[in-house]
């Protein structure tokens, strides 16, 4: 009977470890944390030295009972939870529970740590146990206490001042700020035009293009040719002077080397998993966890294939480096092996250098040798890790770069072209960092004074581009650069932002939602200090200092809480929402809001470098006492008066510019009646004619498109659009079966077809103005999607009811009846087939988390006395 108990976090490790340690060991799993803070206010008490009230996690009580029963029968207990702060905290919680149950000190308790699940690593750890590190435990407790105090104090305030079911977090809120302020940069961006001039030529069958770099002795900068007219003038001068020939003025050749990248950290693994494999950050970590915990190889023996995947370090052990170098020496020629091992220095300030980088546990296990045992996702990620690890100890790639300058016709006007050829592939034989940077550009072999005939000189128009929205990879990279959170938490941060409805991932780019922007604006208005990137990074550094034994955790907590508690005072009295900047016309869209907010990309005033929000809010036009605030409601955002309930002024937000005075667009060509553009409570609209005082009949009206600006009076294009809008609803004819009218129009959810009281959306690439009767009948015959804005995929084989794909607030999902199932990030919506949809719906039902229909409340009448 085993008298040694070894406790791990995950049950998938158990069989592997049992094989390594033998029959004398019983291996049990805690299934993660066994205790957590009580999920209510007061679980962390600043008044008693930040005492914490813990409770057992309900779902893990049965696993804990099994552990306690086994612990009572054991001579030695080994706590082998993960080698990080969370793992150390789990080990400490278990030791506390053992002490409460009087299992200690009768039974010996040891903490063992291994960074890879191999026999050598595990047996060595068991032979060299240590005590639970209270420094690591204190760092974890401090992080947990900080998150609790921030979340449980800010979130209720958000419920009152913004909307229900919202949350703020020490790390998630600065991450949201990154996404929102990037959107503001894009909205404020003004495109700037510029031109470049080139020539095209052919030599030795090779087509070549060179760019003008100097004109009349002046070195050209990006905006030196800002207009088409100036470009034409420069082209005319060059063409006239050169007679379509140029002369080689200078040829410069120089070698260039490119070193391999360091082995993976958690952050760089997530970034490459996203960029190269199309995984999400969460999926990358999930698959890496599987590879770390063990995969069944050969005779169902499981073995850990990679080292621990939560690490900031780029270090490799001497044994690992020797194995890699021996493999390179055996599998490649000697020129691929450097004379000395390559050592890397991590960029992260917080790297725990005792850890290693993410690497294969045995480099001789090539991806191809394991392919039959791995799922496609496991194989892809293992191959990525294996290639990066091998490459990091290989020689640099060598290139030859050539730069050729052409005078046209003299050295005062110069065209330049640069090319690159690969001389030796080095590490790129197994791994490429960025294919574009290593791309070969071949140039003809030319010498000084050679003359080329030019096919043509030409100009190219360019416009400066706004910064791109964050994708998962770039967000992870920026979080790491700013020191926000830890790499092991990035996937959770990204998931939380989406689950809360603060940001949506569309076309692999994050866009903040209305609620996300409002939450960010509210927090910046009242708690801007805690959203500062430097402040968040400093807290992370303090946590690292605690884990290293260099800081007292209660002092860090006290310093934080004293200031935070002071900032919380009186915030209950602040008004709902955020102030609307005072501008003309009034600010009613996010784009206009961004343009009136003097933020740069770092959220600070460009001149003073101090964080600011709009200081002058728009006065309420109704009471002239209150100011206007952007607020949230169940129906969406709206503008309201700060003097509510005394003043009940409201205005919609997101409807475009305010139209204070009617604009006459012109005369309807057929009706010979004036068309005006007017402002209404739901945005601008066009109206045909005027309302007659004695008539109950209202003039015909149509909403003005939200994505169309306010035109000037008598604008011909605007008049044509207005005539089109007023032509709706448009009668197409009678349905051949029902003999009822089919008509088209535009509604709240876009253009649609109406027939017999039912509606069918018109596809985005078609419009209600020229769709034919036959096409309308065809669309009406298609199966209903069972919801607004969805796309029919097919019919469910069980009940023949439609299965449809929808675009929801938190991303794409499939729907069948009352069951909705989220489409994972790994699928593009266009790739979702009926088979995939059925699998997703089946999985959703099996989890038992589908919404149950609400029961009808039965009214009970009181009996008369």
Task: Explain the overall architecture.
This protein is an alpha+beta fold. The protein folds into six domains: 4-132, Rossmann fold (3-Layer(aba) Sandwich), CATH 3.40.50; 141-189 and 468-573, Topoisomerase I, domain 2; 193-259 and 398-463, Topoisomerase I, domain 3; 266-395, Topoisomerase I, domain 4, CATH 1.10.290; 663-726, no CATH class; 731-847, no CATH class. It is built from 21 helices and 36 strands. Strands 9, 10, 11, 12, 15, 16, 17 and 18 form an eight-stranded antiparallel β-sheet that branches. The longest helix is centred in the first third of the chain and has 28 residues, at 134-161. The protein is globular and about 100 Å long. Mean pLDDT is 87; it is low at 600-612 and 851-865.
Helix content: 25-40%
* CATH homolog superfamily of the largest domain: Topoisomerase I, domain 2
Mean pLDDT: 87
CATH topology of the largest domain: Topoisomerase I, domain 2
- Uncertain segments are 600-612, 851-865
How large, in whole angstroms, is the Cα Rg? 33 Å
Structural class: alpha+beta
Strand content: 15-25%
CATH architecture of the largest domain: Orthogonal Bundle
Number of domains: 6
Biggest β-sheet strands, sense, barrel: 8 strands, antiparallel
Tally of helical segments: 21
| DSSP strand tally | 36
Shape: globular
N→C terminal distance: 75 Å
CATH class of the largest domain: Mainly Alpha
